[in-house]
Each structure stands twice: as C-alpha cells, then as structure tokens.
Design a protein that fits this description.
about 425 residues, alpha+beta, four-stranded mixed sheet, four-stranded antiparallel sheet, about 15% strand, binds uracil
Length: about 425
C-alpha cells in the first residue's frame, strides 16, 4: 500500500477528488493524535467546505470520528426493573435555541432516559453547555460512571463529549475559527459521530433552516436531515428529524444565562409560545421513538414535574439554583423610533450582536461571558409604542456595545402591518 500523507490528501480534495477510506481513516486518526498539523487540517476542512464530500466519504468520515474515541453502551442499565428507554435529541444549531434545557426535563418526567453529549457555542450559534454553565457550580465534565449513575438515578446526564469522538472535538473547535462550519458533510459527521458514540438507542434531530441556521435553504437542510437519518439507521440507531424554521430567534432571549432564565419560565408553565411548541413537538417525537405512548408531555409543564426533574438534573451536576444567574454589568436599550407593529427580526443580526457582547468565542477555549446576551421585548407581530424598549443588550465589557448595536442595526423594523407568519415546524424526515 502507498504511504499516505497530509499534503496529498489536501491536494486530492482541493482538486475535487474523492478521498479513499484509508486516507480518511488515516487523516482522522493522525489529526487526533497530533500527527497532522492544525494548518493541514484547516486546509483540508476548507477544501471539504468548498468541494463537498460524497455520501460514502461522509459515512467513512463519521465512522472514523466515532472510532477516534470511546463508544458508550448503556443497554445494561435498568430502572424500576425495566431497561432504560434511551433516547436523545440534537439540534444543528440555531439562535436562541435553548430547547434542550426545557426538553430534557420534560422527557425525563415522561419516563425516558437521555444521555446527552452536548456542545459549546459554534460560529454564531450558542452552545447548551455554555448556557448551562452560567448556573453557579454547574459542571458538564462528567465521568462515564457519573453518567451511568445519573441515568439510573434521575434519567438524564448532559455532558461535554470528552472522550467521545475526540476527533470531532478538535475539528469542531478548528471549524469554529476557520469559517468552515456551514458545510453539509461536516455538520452531518460532527453531529452523528457524537450521537453514535454517546449510547442513545434512538435519536431525534432538529435540523434548522433559514437566515439564522448554518444551512439557509430548504433543499440543503433536507439533504442534511436525510444524510443524518440515513447515517443513524445505517449504524443501528433509529433516527428521525424535524425541519424547523430559523429565520427569527427562538423565544425572546439570545445569550447564555438569559436563555436559562427563559427556559425556567417554560418549565414553570409560561415562556414564549414558539419555545413551548418546539419543546413539546420534539418531546413527542422522542417519546414515540422511545416507545412511550401513555403520557402527555404538556402535562409535565402544567403539573411541575418537569421543573422538579430540571432541579434534580442541575443539582446532580453541581448547580445551585438558589443563587442568582449572572446578568452583564453593563446594558444598553434600543427603543422604538415610532409606533406600529414589530416586523421580522433577523436571527443572524441578533446572534451576531450576542456574540459581539461576549456570549460566544473568537478564539478556541476562550471563556464566554455568562451574563452576555440580548433580551427581545417585542416579538414579530406585536404592537409597539414610540419610545418603548425593543431590545436590551447585556455585557461585562462596555466597549463591546457599539459593535453589538451595529450588528443589530438593520436586523429589525417597525411597520404598519404584521409580518407574514410562517410555520415553525416545516417537515418531518425519517
Ligand atoms: N452541531 C454539531 O454538533 N456540529 C456541527 O457541526 C453543527 C451543529
């Protein structure tokens, strides 16, 4: 067999060729163990971004990333004498997408068990772990034994992928700073490598489409959904996907602690309609995938059982909800220049404003500001009075406010008519 080297692999993809299975296995393994330099992987990721990958290459890239680390197996775990109904959900990344935070407690309260390997912020999108780590004391660094124990005791664990798919951990961080996130095969393999390794027995995907998503058009998002559903099924994990709209931010908050606060409102039986609707739609899919059909997930928000599960989950992972959640020390409010009806709000503009305020990172490993974010006071279609507050921006670094305000500028408008309503859930694949 000919020797494999990084420059040849990069050149093959740069020139539009197809990578062999051996080349993919080699490059993923060598990069994980330091045998391929960051510059070389950056070049290869950019070549993949520009040239794409075939279905066969994507499947092999995913398998190689799974093989780069451990693969959990929780099938021996039981609760109340029955095997755990292990199911998980993953979103491809949105703006204000805090859904995992209320969703996990809802499905826990309905009897499913969720081993959730979660991520940090990527590109303009927030990360569930960054949001949850705004709760004083909360940790997502769990050992395998802690995860097993939590699944048996309370029915969920939410953890940094750690030794699961370490190749994804490295490429995820590299993609974040090399503008190579929004590539269909790279998103599909990143999501599915973590999910195949984490030990869930069924999977529900929330594939975002629109201005605030990585993939902006429906055909691209559909292809991503189909690719991931097929990858799941080919690996023995029944997988389905919802295609959901991501043109406007989800809910009324974008950032870290502000999104946790809004999630707690949902768990208390309130919260924005779109967040509640998507939480319940995904819960229904997860429960169906887990074979649980005798409970109404909406009831868990009404009777407080989902809130109880959230408290259990946070406490199990060291979080202290008796302490206040952080709020940025500096704030600025955008007020309405005129009365009328709030028009569309561009998810990307709000996401970039939150990122500039410090909710996301520009360098790998950089800490995020827990208190940074944007609160949206008027959602599209709501009446607005001249002079009232429309957005509040929070940060601990006041000199970030000017750039954040510039991102928000042009991302919203006030009109005389309500903007056209579009469905939140576009389709189901799988
Ligand atoms: N979520 C992931 O885990 N990876 C991506 O590439 C995008 C969203």
């Amino acid at each position: 067999m000919r020797t494999i080297d990084a420059p040849t692999i990069i050149r093959t993809k740069r020139d539009g060729g197809t990578l062999s299975e051996q080349a993919i296995d080699w490059v993923i393994d060598a990069y994980t163990h330091g045998g391929v330099a960051e510059e070389q992987m950056s070049a290869l990721l950019m070549a993949i971004f520009l040239r794409g990958m075939t279905a066969g290459e994507t499947a092999r890239w995913t398998a190689a990333m799974v093989a780069s680390g451990e693969r959990f197996d929780f099938t021996d775990l039981h609760r109340d004498g029955r095997p755990l109904a292990l199911v998980d959900k993953h979103s491809t990344g949105g703006v204000g997408d805090k859904i995992t935070i209320p969703l996990l407690p809802v499905v826990m309260a309905c009897g499913a068990a969720v081993p959730q390997a979660s991520g940090r912020g990527l590109g303009h999108t927030g990360g569930t772990l960054d949001k949850l780590e705004s709760i004083p004391g909360f940790t997502a660094e769990l050992s395998k034994n802690q995860i097993r124990q939590q699944l048996c005791d309370i029915g969920a664990a939410i953890f940094a992928a750690g030794e699961l798919a370490p190749a994804d951990r490295k490429t995820y961080a590299l993609r974040d700073i090399t503008s190579t996130v929004d590539s269909m095969p790279l998103i599909a393999s990143s999501v599915m490598s973590k999910k195949l390794a984490e030990g869930a027995r069924a999977l529900v995907l929330d594939v975002k489409v629109g201005r605030g998503a990585f993939l902006k058009t429906e055909p691209e998002a559909r292809e991503l959904a189909r690719t991931m559903v097929d990858l799941g099924k080919a690996n023995g994990i029944p997988t389905r996907a919802l295609l959901t709209a991501m043109d406007r931010p989800l809910g009324r908050t974008v950032g870290n602690a502000v999104e946790v606060v809004e999630s707690i409102e949902v768990l208390a039986g309130g919260g924005p309609d779109d967040v509640v609707a998507l939480t319940l739609a995904l819960a229904t899919e997860m429960l169906d995938a887990a074979g649980i059909d005798d409970v109404d997930p909406a009831e868990t928000l009404r009777d407080g059982s989902a809130m109880d599960r959230f408290r259990q989950l946070v406490a199990a992972q060291g979080g202290d909800l008796s302490q206040p959640l952080p709020v940025g020390a500096s704030s600025e409010t955008v007020t309405a220049p005129r009365g009328g009806i709030m028009g569309d709000i561009d998810a990307m503009g709000v996401a970039m404003a939150a990122w500039r305020l410090g909710a996301g990172r520009a360098q790998p490993g950089e800490p995020v500001q827990s208190g940074a974010g944007v609160r949206i006071h008027r959602s599209p279609g709501e009446p607005v009075t001249a002079g009232e507050a429309l957005f509040t921006l929070y940060t601990d670094t006041p000199d970030r406010i000017t750039d954040a305000m510039a991102e928000l500028d042009g991302a919203w408008r006030i009109g005389d008519d309500a903007p056209a309503d579009s469905p939140l859930i576009i389709d189901r694949v799988g």
